[in-house]
Design a protein that fits this description.
Blueprint: E1 5-8, H1 13-25, E2 31-32, H2 48-63, E3 66-76, E4 83-84, H3 97-107, E5 115-125, E6 131-142, E7 158-160, E8 163-164, H4 170-176, H5 178-191
Parallel strand pairs: 1-2, 1-3
Antiparallel strand pairs: 3-4, 3-5, 5-6, 6-7, 7-8
Bound molecules: inosinic acid.
The site of inosinic acid has 15 residues, from strand 3.
């Protein structure tokens, strides 16, 4: 893989900072391209992998730069992996974090098997168009009610050990999260 300047296909400043942090920590000197625009990419595919690839390819086509893109889903065992790729709109199009969590608690009401995982798929396309796909998984379980006020999305009902993600400090969550693991997998692959 070879790239010098990199577009991070996200409008989420927090994700961008997190990504640059990990890349810098392995001594990868990347220059961020932050003065280009790209059209919103609708995540219409049926898997996290395809969505991440779609986003990476479209942003690369629009900007001409090397790019990294990701897609994340919550996969609940008792729901055969749902909401998965539909995590952002579990409660319907235009769903809020609140609505999605309400629906999850409702459909999990009375279900014994609470096992779940967050899975992030990350795609890097380099200057030559070469594609690298990695993933990061965080295993946990779904609580029966919300706990904690940090984080976002499903954090208040996703428990690791005896705390939910929303009960952890941001820094702590970001060190162990699915996204952090995907980033480290990306960094490992780049170092090899
Ligand atoms: P995205 O791929 O990062 O946009 O994530 C898709 C959806 O998954 C979000 O709308 C959230 O509902 C959920 N999600 C992703 N990452 C997290 C996380 O770290 N904590 C809680 N929910 C998350």
């Amino acid at each position: 893989m070879e790239f010098r300047r990199l577009v991070i296909a996200s409008k989420n400043q927090h994700k961008i900072v997190e990504m640059l942090d990990v890349l810098a920590s392995i001594g990868l000197d990347v220059e961020l391209v932050d003065d280009v625009e790209w059209p919103d990419v609708e995540e219409t595919e049926s898997t996290l992998e395809r969505n991440a690839l779609l986003k990476a390819r479209e942003v690369r086509a629009a900007t001409g730069f090397a790019v990294v893109a990701d897609d994340t889903g919550l996969e609940v065992e008792a729901l055969d992996g749902a909401p998965g790729v539909f995590s952002a709109r579990f409660a319907g199009s235009g769903a809020t974090y609140e609505g999605n969590v309400d629906k999850l608690l409702r459909v999990m009401n009375g279900v014994d098997n609470r096992a779940a995982r967050f899975r992030t798929v990350m795609v890097l396309i380099d200057d030559h168009g070469e594609e690298l796909v990695v993933e990061g998984i965080m295993e946990g379980s779904i609580t029966t009610e919300r706990r904690g006020s940090n984080g976002f999305g499903y954090d208040p009902v996703f428990e690791v050990g005896d705390r939910t993600f929303a009960e952890m400090e941001t820094r702590e969550k970001n060190e162990i999260s699915h996204r952090a693991k995907a980033l480290r997998a990306l960094a490992d692959a780049l170092q090899r």
